[in-house]
Amino acid sequence: MSSAFQDTPDSEGRRLPTDGQPETHAGGAQGLAALLLLADGRFPAGGYAHSGGLEPMVANGRVHDVDSLESFLRGRAATSGLVAAGIAAAACGAVLDLDAERLTLLDDALDARMPSPAQRSTSRQLGRQLLRVMHMIRPDPRFDGLGRTPHHPVVLGVTAATFGLGRRDAAMLSLHECIAGPAAAAVRLLSIDPFETHASLARLGPYLESLADEAAAASHEDVDNLSAAGSPLMDLAAEQQTWHEKRLFAS
Question: What is the pLDDT of residues 169-216, one digit of tens each?
C-alpha cells in the first residue's frame, strides 16, 4: 500500500500561500468542495440508519428535549467523538506521511477503545459502506490496503487525504458526523423542531473547532497516546439497542 502513496505539499496536506500561513483546506476551492460533499447528510455512507446511541437514551428518558439533546451531543463529541476524530486525523496523516503500517495500528487501536461489541460492529459496517462508496466515486490505490471491514474513522481519514484535505479537516469531518447524525435522528425520535436541533449544532460549533484542534495536534503522537476517552453509559446503551425489537435505527 505504501508504494501507492503520493507526496503532498506538506505533512498536513496543505499548500502554503505567500504569507507563510497554511490554508484552511489543502486544495482551496477543491478542498472546500470535498468538505461539502463529505459532510452532506445525503452522502450515501450509511450514517442515516444510525442514531449514534441517541435512540436508547431517548427510550430511557435521559434525552427528552432540546436542552438534554444538546448536552448529549456535547458529551458524545467529547468522548467517542474525540476518539474517532483523533483516529481519523492520524489516518489522514499516515497517508500523507506514506506510513501504511500506521493504518493497521490505528484500526487495532480503535478496537481497543471500543468496549462494546455493538459499537465495534457499527463502526466497521459504516467503514465498509464508506469504503464501497469511495471505490465508486473516487477510486484510489490508497484504499486497497484497508481490508474489507476497516473502522469508519480510519476510512474517513484516508478519504480526506485522497481529496487533498489535511489532518484537521479529517478531525472536523469526524466530529461533524458524530453530532449531526444524532441531531437528525432526534427530529424523528423526539418530534423536535429541526430549526431547534440545527441551532444546537450551531452553538456547538466553536466547541467542535477546539476538539478538532486537539485531535489534529495529537494525531502526530504515538498511537497509544491518542485519546481514549470513554463513555460507559453509551457502551451499555449500544448493547441494549441490539436486542430492542421495536427500534427506528440500527444503533
Answer: 999 999 999 999 999 999 999 988 899 999 999 999 999 999 999 999
pLDDT category of residue 19 using cuts at 50, 70 and 90: very low
Q: What are the cell numbers at 101?
A: 503500517
User: For the segment 57-114, what is each residue's pLDDT rounded down to a tens digit?
Assistant: 998 899 999 999 999 999 999 999 999 999 999 999 999 999 999 999 999 999 999 9
Q: In Å, how far are 2, 6, 72, 73, 126 from 175, measured between CA atoms?
A: 27, 26, 14, 10, 15
Q: What angle do CA 241, 247, 251 make, to 5 degrees?
A: 45
Running DSSP on this structure, what letter comes out for residue 63? -
20 CB neighbour count, 10 Å cutoff: 6
pTM of the model as a whole: 0.86
* Helix count and strand count (H, E) for the chain: 10, 0
Spatial separation of the C-alpha atoms in residues 26 and 43, rounded to whole Å: 21
8 A C-beta contact, residue 171 and residue 50: no
The CA distance from 188 to 68, in Å, is 16
Tell how far CA 144 is from the center of its chain: 20
Burial call 109-134: b when 16+ CB within 10 Å, e when fewer: bbeebbbbebbbbbbbbbbbbbbebb
User: Could you tell me the three cell numbers for 75?
Assistant: 458529551
Question: Cβ contacts of residue 41 below 8 Å, gap of 6+?
Answer: 47, 48, 180, 184
Q: Distance between CA atoms of 55 and 36, rounded to whole angstroms?
A: 27
